[in-house]
Write a structure and sequence with these properties.
about 250 residues; disordered C terminus; 8-stranded mixed sheet; single chain; two-stranded antiparallel sheet; about 20% strand; 7 helices; alpha/beta
C-alpha cells in the first residue's frame, strides 16, 4: 500500500449500559483490557500502523491507560487524544492528528473479537479497488417490527408497512477512508443523524463501498455482551499471535 496506514481507536465513551464504574473499554477480557485486545489486532495485522487512541475527557483515563500499557508490556506507540462531547467531535479531534495522503481505519475500541485476517483483507481490498470509503456490513437476520411507545411507555405497533429485511444491513467497524476525504467530511456541522463515520462521509458526497463483515465483530455494550465475548474466547475462537515489541511513545 502506497499510503501510510493509521488506526483511530475510539474509546471515549463511559459505557453506562455496562453498569460498571470502570469504562467498558478498560474492563478485563481474556486476561487483557478490551481496548488492548482491539488495538493489538491492528498492530498484528499491519505492524507499521500508527495508532491514535481517543479516551474519555479527564486526565485520569489517560493516566490509567498509560499505566496499564506499561504494567502489561503493551509496547505500542500511540498518540492519545481526549474525546469530545459526542462521537462526531471525538473522531474530528483524532483526524486532526492524521496527515493527508494516508489511509485511516476508524474502529470502535470495544469491538475486540474481529480477526487479524479480516483487518488485513479490508486494507487489501481498499488498496486494490482504489475506493474512497470501505464499510463492513452484515445482513439483518431478525424479523423487524415497527413499534412506538405509548403514553404509558409500553411498546405498541406502529402504522405502516413492515421493514423489508432483505435490503437492510447493519454497519460495523473498522470503516476505512482516505484521510483527506474523511477529514473534509468531518468539517461539516454536526447533525444528530451522524451515527457512524459512513453517515458523515455519505452526507459529504463520498461514495461508499461495502464488504461483508464478521458475525463475531460485535460491539460490547451490555454485561451480557461481555459474558458472550468471554465464552467465545474460551472456546478458542480467538488466537493471539505474537508481534514484535515496539517502543512506548505517548504524545
Amino acid at each position: 500500500m502506497n499510503r501510510k496506514c493509521y488506526l483511530i481507536a475510539m474509546a471515549a465513551g463511559h459505557g453506562s449500559r455496562m453498569g460498571t464504574e470502570l469504562p467498558k473499554q478498560f474492563l478485563p477480557l481474556g486476561g487483557r483490557a478490551v481496548l488492548h485486545t482491539t488495538i493489538r489486532k491492528f498492530v498484528e495485522a499491519v505492524p507499521d500502523i500508527s495508532v491514535v487512541t481517543v479516551l474519555p475527557q479527564g486526565g485520569e483515563y489517560a493516566d490509567w491507560w498509560r499505566r496499564y500499557c506499561v504494567e502489561n508490556n503493551f509496547n505500542c506507540p500511540q498518540m492519545i487524544v481526549s474525546g469530545g462531547i459526542t462521537r462526531f467531535h471525538s473522531v474530528k479531534a483524532a483526524l486532526s492528528k492524521i496527515p493527508d495522503g494516508a489511509v485511516v481505519a476508524i474502529q470502535d475500541g470495544v469491538r475486540p473479537l474481529l480477526t487479524v485476517e479480516f483487518i488485513r483483507s479490508m486494507f487489501s481490498r481498499f488498496d486494490e479497488s482504489d475506493c474512497r470509503a470501505l464499510i463492513p456490513v452484515l445482513p439483518v437476520v431478525d424479523t423487524l417490527k415497527m413499534l412506538r411507545k405509548d403514553n404509558d411507555g409500553r411498546l405498541v405497533q406502529s402504522s405502516g408497512p413492515e421493514p423489508d429485511r432483505s435490503v437492510l444491513f447493519g454497519a460495523q467497524t473498522p470503516q476505512i477512508f482516505r484521510s483527506e476525504d474523511i477529514r473534509a467530511a468531518y468539517g461539516q456541522a454536526y447533525d444528530v443523524s451522524f451515527t457512524d463515520d459512513a453517515s458523515v462521509a455519505s452526507r459529504y458526497g463520498i461514495p461508499l463501498a461495502f464488504c461483508e463483515g464478521e458475525r463475531l465483530n460485535f460491539k460490547l455494550t451490555t454485561p451480557e455482551d461481555l459474558i458472550l465475548a468471554e465464552a467465545v474466547m474460551k472456546l478458542g475462537k480467538e488466537s493471539y499471535s505474537s508481534f514484535p515489541l515496539l517502543k512506548v511513545v505517548f504524545s
